[in-house]
Amino acid sequence: MSQILVTGANGFVGRALCRALSVTGHDVTGLVRQASGIGGGREWIDNSIDFTGIAKAWPQGFKPQCVVHLAARVHVMRDDALDPDAAFRATNVEGALRVAQAAWRNGAQRFVFVSSVKAVGEADSGHPLRESDTPFPQDAYGRSKFEAEQALVRYGNETGLDVVIVRPPLVYGPQVRANFLRLLDAVWKGVPLPLAAVDAKRSLVYVDNLADALALCATDPRATRQCFHVADGDDQTVAQLARAIGDHLHRPARLLPLPVSWLRVAGRLTGRTPQVERLIGSLQVNTTHIRAVLDWHPPHSTDEGLAATAGWYRATHGDHS
C-alpha cells in the first residue's frame, strides 16, 4: 500500500482517481481548496493562490510516496484574462513546480503530472500523436502545460524526483462539463448538428480509464521518468460520437451533411475558427507506449463509458430540459 497525495482531488478526474486508489487499498489524501468530499480518502485544505502557501500548510509528518498533480487552470473557450499566457503560467507552471518542490522536501519519490495532449498540438498532422513528436502547442493553456512538463523534468533531473507525465485528450464521463456537456445537451434537445460530413477522428478517454492509468503511473516502478499518452483506443468522428450518444440517450442525433469547407467559412465569419477546427480536425493519440511499458489496457470500452455518461445525463439533466 502506498501513501498518495492527489491535488485537485475534488475535480472531475480527481474524484475518479481517489476512488480508484482507495478501492485498491492505497492511503489517499486529497489536496483541495475547500472541503467537499473526494470520493475516497481524506482531505487536506490549502486555499492559497497558485500554491504559494503549500510549503507552510504541508501537514507535519506527512510523507507521501507519490503526488499526482491534477490541479490546474483549465482550458476555457473565452478567456477574459488580460494576459492569458501569464495567468496560465502562474498556476500551471509556477504552481506545479511549488507542489513538486514541497513534495520532494517532504519525502515524495514520484510526481505524476497530468498534462494534456494540447501540450503537443491541436491536430495530428496525419498520424496519431506519439510522445516523441515535437510539441507545438497552439494556445495559452497548451503552452503552459508544455512549459510545466519541461520545468518539472528539469527539477526531477536536478533533485532525483521521479517525474512521470501523462497526456490525456478530451476526458468524458458522468459529471463532464464544457464542450462534451454541450454536445449531450444538443443531442438531447434535438438540435440539428452540421457534422454528418465530418470524417476526421478524435481520441477520447473515459474518466475511469484515465483514473486507472494514473493509478498505475503512481505505483508501478516501470513508469519511472516516462511520458504517456492515454486514450480509450476507439477513436471516432464527431458524427459517430453524436450518433452513439443519441443511441444511449434514446434520442437520435440530428446530423446535417454540410461540407467541411462551409463549416470553415462559417468559423471565419463568426470568429469561431478554433472551435470549428476542434470539431472538424483530426486529433488522435498513439497509446502504444503505455500499453507496451505498463501493459495497460483500458478497463472500460468507449461504448461503456458513453452509456455511463448518458445515464448520468438522463438522471441529472434530461428530466429538467
From TrEMBL:
<dbReference type="InterPro" id="IPR001509">
    <property type="entry name" value="Epimerase_deHydtase"/>
</dbReference>
<dbReference type="Pfam" id="PF01370">
    <property type="entry name" value="Epimerase"/>
</dbReference>
<dbReference type="InterPro" id="IPR036291">
    <property type="entry name" value="NAD(P)-bd_dom_sf"/>
</dbReference>
<feature type="domain" description="NAD-dependent epimerase/dehydratase">
    <location>
        <begin position="4"/>
        <end position="224"/>
    </location>
</feature>
<dbReference type="InterPro" id="IPR050177">
    <property type="entry name" value="Lipid_A_modif_metabolic_enz"/>
</dbReference>
<protein>
    <submittedName>
        <fullName>SDR family oxidoreductase</fullName>
    </submittedName>
</protein>
